[in-house]
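Methods — Computational structure assignment.
A single polypeptide chain was analysed. Its primary sequence is given first, followed by the predicted tertiary structure written as structure tokens.
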Amino acid sequence: MKKLFLAVVALLLIVSGCGQSTTETLKVYNWGVYIDESVISEFEDLYNVRVIYENFESNEMMYTQLQSGEVYDVVVPSDYTIERMIAEDMLQTIDMSKLSNYDGLLSNVRGLPHDPNEEYSVPYFWGNVGLVYNQTNVDLSDLQSQGWNILQNEKYAGRIFMYDSERDAFMVALKALGYSANTTNENELNEAYEWLLEVDSTMNPVYVTDEVIDQMINGTKDIAIMYSGDAVYVEMENEDMAFFVPSEGTNLWVDAMVIPANAENVELAHKWIDFMLSYDVALANTYEVAYSSPVEAVFNDVIADDYSDYLDSYIPRLDNPNDETFRHNDDVKRIISDLWIRVKAQ
């Protein structure tokens, strides 16, 4: 009888262990403050799986993490980083036939230069970069006449947040100087470096990332370089704040879902991507973080209703020939990475 009891216990332990080991796990790596977290548990319940959800603060941080050998099933890089990852064989193609919601995407976010054949990436959010400003303390006429160069106007010294992103910072400087954000001319990149040094030495800017959202809501500074989605949220919370995109041009960006080459659960990754494109989930996400949805039905419904007062920030500008999407270039990447470190080291 004792042997029978021990055999039953052993069998139960084996069955219990098997049950635990067969639970599917999905690892997702995304930007911070970029999802309605309730949809994570919704996905877990729908597919009876576990989601490990981690955040990064920059494309560079994400890229380094993957290069170190970390394994994720879905990652959400920006366009130019996706282009780099494709070139370096870090991504696998996505089977679009498994995405029932893919055809519901806006045409504006499909077939862009980083993935022209729509093979490796699926848009998650999109937008542009501009200036959030306090309407009571900043003259609109200064913004209109100076554009990005308002960041060198000493009238606003000590009242500026600079977003701590090397690519966006150099875009701002290059556009202020009248150059392409994708220039490969080293003289122009050095001019942009000198422009940023001038800002650093005369304007006493504070370099920030996600904390800029709450800081601008609280009115800590009067001008901040910000992404359009963050601008929507700030405007909703503080009626003194507004969003301005200089006519000299800006970056039109897309953050998109990709499947790394070493992903361990590819089938579940496809289910996650399609789930993110479903109407209810895309709507929940855009309401939570205020970024522009790539799902056409969600985008149209939101601008006709709840975000109708924030169209200048929620709808990315599409009619300015000076606006560009970022392209990856290894040489330029090395140059601006080095120069950005030197700017902040002053």
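Note: Residues 2-21 form the longest helix (20 residues).
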